Amino acid sequence: MEFGSRRHLMDSPQPQNTTDQELGDQSKSSSSAAMPIMVSILVVVICCTCIYFVYCWRWRKRNAIRRAQIESLVTLSKSDLPLMDFSTIVEATNNFSKSNKLGEGGFGPVYKGVMSGGHEIAVKRLSARSRQGTVEFRNEVELIAKLQHRNLVRLLGCCVDMEEKLLIYEYLPNRSLDAFLFDATRNPQLDWKKRHNIILGIARGLLYLHEDSLLKVIHRDLKASNVLLDNKMNPKISDFGMAKIFEGEDSSEVNTGKVVGTFGYMAPEYALEGTFSIKSDVFSFGVLLLEILSGQRNGTYYVQQHGHTLLQQAWKLWITDRASEFLDPTLSNSYSTSEAFRCFHVGLLCVQANPDERPTMSTVLLMLISDQIQMPLPTEPPTYGRANTISDFSLSTQTGSSAYNKSVNEVTITLVEPR
């Protein structure tokens, strides 16, 4: 009986063995489910590691380029311009206080400073958000250090300290031309004598850049906000960040993939085809001359109001022999009729659609100062700025419009790319 009971126990199912098998199956199932999760985590880790290494590589590359640029700027400043100490500039501008801020352009903010001896300066500080600031900084230092003319703004020195890049200019208390020309309260201060003097001064400065300096320079962004006025209202051309030097005597024009400038001042061949030459500057001068005569800005607002550009308005009055209606009403009858009409005629010659028909700046200056020279009849200005085609341009990107009312000893950089 005992033997039968023992046999019965031996023959009965073993629950422990069944449990072990189930656990083994569950373990295999858990391992199979965990495998995709582990693979996913591994892939994420590898991807994050790769991204991190790429980021580090690009960061080091950017820093290497930045250091090389700064080192080259330091070398350049030592050889061509006085290199000023950063602490001196900080003290002169009261640590770049808001009360000393004069304005801001595409390059960055501009501050008024007073040196220890009482000498006033204008300090242009490269903005950390300016992507092309280093390029324009070097361009200004290279150009203005070699250009000396009474109608060009004078660069006194520069400062390169770690990430800080500063340009130090002479301080001009009367701000820029647009601060007077397009301000209803200050516009009457520009009588005919002052306006005529400003026109001649700008022409002389541009002639120096094109023909009389050691370098043949095309400004590419001549406009009212880039003409500064000294205490005697003498004009000085500023903003050489976008200027280009022509290589060789036989160079006549250059094609560029990037169009820089301000809508309303750009020559049609430059705005639409990317081709610029000294005649592009002549066109900008013509626009500026007509603005000085009329007291009105040739821009988007004018087109929206009148359905055509200021240039088209000038042409309409020219062909109907009503040139006197184009002149700023604040001039009243205090202007010289012969000088004003000659300026009007020259302005239309400068803004002709065909660049070959535009005069050079030497001829422009001669026509402005002499009543003996026979001037050709102008042809119609370009019509690409009419209301029906104005949407072809990226007007919202121009910094000129936002910097007009606060342009003081500053450089504004405007990029406009045709669509």
TrEMBL record:
<dbReference type="GO" id="GO:0005886">
    <property type="term" value="C:plasma membrane"/>
</dbReference>
<keyword id="KW-0547">Nucleotide-binding</keyword>
<protein>
    <recommendedName>
        <fullName>non-specific serine/threonine protein kinase</fullName>
        <ecNumber>2.7.11.1</ecNumber>
    </recommendedName>
</protein>
<keyword id="KW-0808">Transferase</keyword>
<keyword id="KW-0067">ATP-binding</keyword>
<keyword id="KW-1133">Transmembrane helix</keyword>
<keyword id="KW-0732">Signal</keyword>
<keyword id="KW-0472">Membrane</keyword>
<feature type="region of interest" description="Disordered">
    <location>
        <begin position="1"/>
        <end position="28"/>
    </location>
</feature>
<keyword id="KW-1015">Disulfide bond</keyword>
<keyword id="KW-0325">Glycoprotein</keyword>
<dbReference type="InterPro" id="IPR008271">
    <property type="entry name" value="Ser/Thr_kinase_AS"/>
</dbReference>
<feature type="domain" description="Protein kinase">
    <location>
        <begin position="96"/>
        <end position="373"/>
    </location>
</feature>
<dbReference type="GO" id="GO:0005524">
    <property type="term" value="F:ATP binding"/>
</dbReference>
<dbReference type="Pfam" id="PF07714">
    <property type="entry name" value="PK_Tyr_Ser-Thr"/>
</dbReference>
<keyword id="KW-0723">Serine/threonine-protein kinase</keyword>
<dbReference type="InterPro" id="IPR000719">
    <property type="entry name" value="Prot_kinase_dom"/>
</dbReference>
<dbReference type="InterPro" id="IPR001245">
    <property type="entry name" value="Ser-Thr/Tyr_kinase_cat_dom"/>
</dbReference>
<feature type="compositionally biased region" description="Basic and acidic residues">
    <location>
        <begin position="1"/>
        <end position="10"/>
    </location>
</feature>
<feature type="compositionally biased region" description="Polar residues">
    <location>
        <begin position="13"/>
        <end position="28"/>
    </location>
</feature>
<dbReference type="InterPro" id="IPR011009">
    <property type="entry name" value="Kinase-like_dom_sf"/>
</dbReference>
<feature type="transmembrane region" description="Helical">
    <location>
        <begin position="33"/>
        <end position="57"/>
    </location>
</feature>
<dbReference type="GO" id="GO:0004674">
    <property type="term" value="F:protein serine/threonine kinase activity"/>
</dbReference>
<keyword id="KW-0418">Kinase</keyword>
<keyword id="KW-0812">Transmembrane</keyword>
